[in-house]
Design goal:
Blueprint lengths: L4 E4 L4 E4 L8 E5 L10 H21 L4 E5 L6 H10 L3 H18 L15 H13 L3 E4 L2 E4 L15 H7 L14 E6 L14 E3 L3 H11 L2 E8 L3 H16 L4 E8 L2 E3 L2 E2 L10 H6 L4 H9 L7 E3 L1 H18 L10 H8 L4 H13 L3 H10 L22 H15 L3 H13 L3 E4 L4 E4 L2 H17 L3 H13 L17 H25 L1
Parallel strand pairs: 3-4, 3-9, 9-10, 11-13
Antiparallel strand pairs: 1-2, 5-6, 6-7, 7-8, 11-12, 14-15
Helix pairs in contact: 4-6, 6-7, 9-10, 11-12, 12-13, 14-15, 14-18, 16-17, 16-18
Bound molecules: zinc ion (ZN).
Zinc ion binds next to helix 7.
């Protein structure tokens, strides 16, 4: 079994992940407050933890992982929107939840096994607050229930702050009903259009933090494996979740591993409505940026590093994915995920280095491995492929190859299958991959594929001591511009960029000859 290592924000070290129960690995991720479309920064944790979910399913089996992500559907921002629009709260939250699922689904995020709504767990929250008050970690004052941060010894441990630091650094709300300005609300009174429920402290509604403590306990029990969310939630939200849960259920309870993704910037600047660089996932999709491209860009930076969203990355991702889709068109993934890819992901979700190997597979023409590795990242999946149609993304900078593909396309339209096949075979000699759909064809030209395949067969012939084959292949290698295919010790050599370029030039020469031959024929 692949050993997974995860950076635990709580212990500030990368640790070997040992699930409490390998038959039921439990992960809780804080979800959105549902009053508006998800912006691109909101999508980052969704996509990051989706990859972790996929990895856990791969390692422990899809039936042995439970992923819960909540919807915060009681919040003052929702109340404000209801007041502003005259619509009901339920109407707004239902609509926003359906938008969220639709937009995140477009980005290839699998739906969690559990998607609890805060308003459906009010009795569980009330019960937890009652326990906290009974244990003297919380108190009641003027219709409020408040958590007493001084009563909980480890308050601030996750984010590494003391209560005094917090008071100095934060804009805390000083209120007459609070014993300490850092004490946070578990329950507060409701009036007017504010949603409310009856409670031992009067008619009111929960504070934000208690929902995750109460819902994770209801779904997972007192202890579970992984708790994730954006770094912006570390303080105060996660700090408060820990205080509530551990004060209520015991010191060694709640999440074992805490994971936080870093924030997202746009073109090097903090996203803000006033800078005009604030956009929702839906707006990006409506601009015509393919869903898969958005996912690729979000994954291209390691989750623990700040990510910079740029137009340049979008363009590059689109080119890369068009190449990958052409190369893997009509192919099947390997049954097992390539070890290198699993290994990268198991190393604290190192997606960028997994992508490095995927690029290498593409360069070497290893389509099945590329497909299988990319699938584990939720890329190159059939459901993501709508944006891509073969032949419409010009991934070839080579005019001759484009002419050959056009020529062949005509033969196919005339149902001259033998003629089309012959061209395919000619291109196969150059290790150029031709992918055909019913309507269109596309070709993928990568000189390194020819280079690597030639090198591999030379190494094989050398190892098998097949002198005739070896000499033959060495002669071939010279033809394509490689004078010394092996290192002195007989082991494969690392090619230089100059050599790849040389082989590319040779291929271009061959393509030119082929064009001349074909156009001479017609
Ligand atoms: Zn939460």
């Amino acid at each position: 079994m692949t050993e997974i290592k995860l950076y635990n924000t709580k212990t500030k070290t990368k640790e070997v992940f040992k699930p409490l129960d390998p038959n039921n690995v439990r992960m809780y991720v804080c979800g959105p407050t549902v009053y508006d479309r998800a912006h691109i920064g909101n999508a980052r944790p969704v996509v990051v933890f989706d990859v972790l979910y996929r990895l856990l399913r791969e390692v422990y089996g899809p039936d042995h992982v439970t992923y819960a992500r909540n919807f915060t559907d009681v919040d003052d921002k929702i109340n404000a929107k209801a007041e502003e629009t005259g619509r009901s709260i339920r109407d707004i939250t239902d609509e926003t939840i359906s938008w969220f699922l639709e937009d995140m689904g477009a980005l290839g995020a699998l739906e969690p096994n559990e998607a609890p709504r805060a308003t459906e767990y009010i009795p569980e929250m009330i019960a937890m607050i009652e326990e906290l008050i009974a244990k003297k970690f919380a108190y009641e004052e003027e219709g409020h229930a408040l958590f007493d941060v001084n009563s909980y010894e480890h308050y601030g441990a996750l984010s590494g702050r003391s209560v005094d630091d917090m008071i100095a650094g934060a804009r805390v709300e000083v209120a007459p009903y609070k014993r300490n300005p850092m004490d946070f609300v578990l329950w507060k009174p409701s009036t007017g259009i504010q949603p409310g429920w009856d409670s031992p402290w009067g008619y009111g509604r929960p504070g934000w933090h208690i929902e995750c403590s109460a819902m994770s306990r209801a779904l997972f029990g007192k202890t579970f494996d992984i708790h994730g969310g954006g770094l912006d939630l570390q303080f105060p939200h996660h700090e408060n979740e820990i205080a509530q849960s551990c004060a209520c259920c015991g010191e060694d309870t709640f999440a074992k591993v805490w994971m936080h993704n870093e924030m997202l910037q746009v073109e090097g600047k903090k996203m803000s409505k006033s800078l005009g660089n604030f956009f929702s996932v839906r707006e990006l999709l409506d601009q015509g940026i393919p869903d898969e491209v958005i996912r690729f860009v979000l994954l291209s930076t390691h989750y623990s590093k700040p990510m910079n969203w740029t137009q340049d990355k979008i363009d590059q991702a689109e080119r890369t994915l068009a190449k990958w889709r052409t190369l893997t068109f009509g192919r099947k993934p390997t049954r097992k995920v390539p070890e290198k890819i699993a290994h990268c992901l198991a190393d604290d979700l190192n997606v960028p280095s997994a992508m490095f190997f995927l690029r290498q597979y593409a360069r070497d023409g290893r389509a099945e491995e590329l497909l299988s590795g990319a699938n584990l990242l939720g890329l190159l999946t059939p459901e993501h492929g709508n944006w891509f149609s073969l032949g419409e993304h010009n991934i070839n900078q080579n005019a001759e190859l484009n002419r050959i593909i056009e020529f062949r396309q005509k033969l196919r339209e005339e149902k001259d299958w033998a003629g089309a096949d012959e061209i395919r075979e000619q291109l196969a000699l150059l290790e150029i991959v031709v992918a055909d759909s019913r309507e269109k064809s596309a070709a993928y030209l990568e000189p390194a594929i020819l280079l690597n395949k030639t090198m591999n067969s030379i190494v094989k012939a050398f190892a098998a001591d097949d002198k005739a084959e070896f000499d033959n292949l060495v002669k071939k290698a010279k033809e394509i511009g490689i004078n010394e295919p092996l290192a002195k010790d007989g082991r494969p050599r690392v090619w230089s960029q100059r050599e790849v370029k040389k082989v590319g030039e040779w291929i271009e020469g061959q393509l030119l000859k082929l064009v001349e031959k074909l156009e001479g024929l017609s």
